[in-house]
Design a protein that fits this description.
Blueprint (H helix, E strand, L loop, with lengths): L9 H6 L20 H10 L2 H5 L2 H14 L4 E3 L6 H5 L4 E4 L3 E4 L5 H5 L11 H13 L5 E7 L1 H10 L6 H9 L2 H24 L3 E6 L7 H22 L5 E5 L5 H8 L4 E3 L6 H8 L4 E6 L1 H6 L1 H14 L5 E5 L9 H21 L4
Helix pairs in contact: 2-4, 4-7, 8-9, 8-10, 10-11, 11-12, 15-16
Bound molecules: coproporphyrinogen III.
Coproporphyrinogen III binds next to strand 3.
Length: 357
């Protein structure tokens, strides 16, 4: 659950507000298709979902990026759409198209969702967490995760990720079934994150990938408020839970999010400037991000320059280096090595300038 007293895991130090021995770095979607060993494990599992529900293989895949790169975190291999599936939605991942789900659009369909026992049906995921927790190096932080209520609801309303209109319309018109749907998801997600933390996750991240769909007024009601309830619900059972929030593409709303959601860190997309990260976000909480995944794909001097600006622009005790969104499947592996090496190089220079580091 919590870190052992002897651990100096850099990511935990930053989330706890202490100066880390070095600036932590990890990547969203760091276990995935850009790695041949991932593609091989997925083929062995038979499908993406069978991989998610196979604790031995999912643990192996979670640890794969650590064998290649000097990273400070491992993120549980699973998916945000396992919660809708546990609530009774039909879920398939079709090649090329991504996820496809059965949809909800009225009070009756929301009432039919199976909240009772939903988190228990995800027991194989906690088994994966326990296996990774036992196998990982002590200074590497194991991160669990779930989707934020709005993003999960939007998949459940649309049935896919490629269209957004019905979900946005529901958020703006706010019919009773929409509020009820968010409550069901929030409740199931509290139980799910608590179970991950009890199984050995040392921090959790809440992915609100579609936060940018919500205009300012709706943002407060359907992004910040449900995440705040989720955070409070988890801490009611695990008081010292460390939580990272990722309201992707939230624009200026990210400042209210950082102030109100109650998270230890806010993850930011590539649209947020280093200046805003430093001057407006880092006084509130730790800040994670935000190299554009396309720059990682590009590599070369443009990637180095972006890393330099980020590392030199943010204080080590408040910064977790990451991408602004998930790594792209066609990213060359050497560019990931370049990225991590560049972070280490620039960070070792700033170390001498910062006190306590
Ligand atoms: O390495 C990690 O980050 C851990 C595992 C992880 C996955 N999905 C594995 C995955 C995490 C944290 C997620 C989160 C997730 N899943 C999000 C939030 C982050 C984001 O990207 O915005 C969302 C929206 C989903 C839903 C989802 N899962 C989509 C839209 C897709 C299809 C798009 C794609 O990249 O293929 C997935 C599939 C998925 N989830 C894959 C992986 C490795 C690819 C599946 C495959 O092997 O074919």
């Amino acid at each position: 659950m919590a870190s052992s007293p002897l651990s100096h895991a850099p990511l935990l130090e930053v989330l706890d507000g202490r100066p880390p021995l070095r600036r932590p770095v990890w990547m969203m979607r760091q276990a995935g298709r850009y790695l041949p060993e991932y593609r091989e494990a997925r083929a062995r599992a038979g499908s993406f979902l069978s991989l998610c529900y196979n604790p031995a293989l999912a643990a192996e895949v979670t640890l794969q990026p650590l064998k290649r790169f000097d990273l400070d975190a491992a993120i549980l291999f699973a998916d945000i759409l396992l919660i809708p599936q546990a609530l009774g939605a039909d879920l398939t991942f079709s090649e090329g198209e991504g996820p496809v789900l059965s949809t909800v659009a009225n009070d009756k369909q929301v009432a039919a969702l199976k909240l009772e026992g939903a988190a228990d049906r995800l027991a194989p995921i906690y088994e994966t967490v326990a296996r990774v927790a036992a196998a990982k190096p002590v200074n590497v932080t194991l991160i669990g995760f779930c989707g934020a209520p709005w993003t999960v609801a939007s998949y459940m309303i649309e049935g896919r990720g490629s269209t957004r209109e019905r979900a946005r319309l529901a958020a703006l018109a706010a019919p009773s079934w929409f509020a009820a749907l968010l409550e069901v998801i929030t409740q199931a997600s509290i139980d799910y994150l608590v179970a991950q933390l009890r199984a050995g996750a040392e921090a959790v991240q809440i992915f609100d990938s579609w936060a940018g769909d919500l205009p300012a007024r709706a943002f407060s009601r359907w992004c910040i408020e449900p995440v705040r309830q989720l955070v409070a619900g988890v801490r009611a059972q695990v008081p010292d839970a460390r939580i990272i929030g990722f309201p992707r593409a939230a624009g200026t709303n990210i400042i209210d999010f950082a102030q109100q959601a109650g998270v230890n860190a806010v993850a930011v997309d590539a649209g947020v400037s280093v200046k805003v990260m430093r001057d407006q976000l880092s006084p509130i909480c730790a800040v994670q991000g935000n190299i554009d995944p396309l720059l990682l794909l590009a590599g070369g001097p443009a990637l180095d320059a972006a890393v330099d600006e980020l590392v030199q622009g943010l204080p080590r005790r408040r910064h977790v280096v990451n991408l602004g969104h998930g790594i792209l499947p066609s990213t060359p592996i050497e560019h990931v090595s370049q990225f991590v090496a560049r972070v280490r190089l620039r960070d070792s220079e700033t170390r001498n300038e910062e006190s306590g580091g």
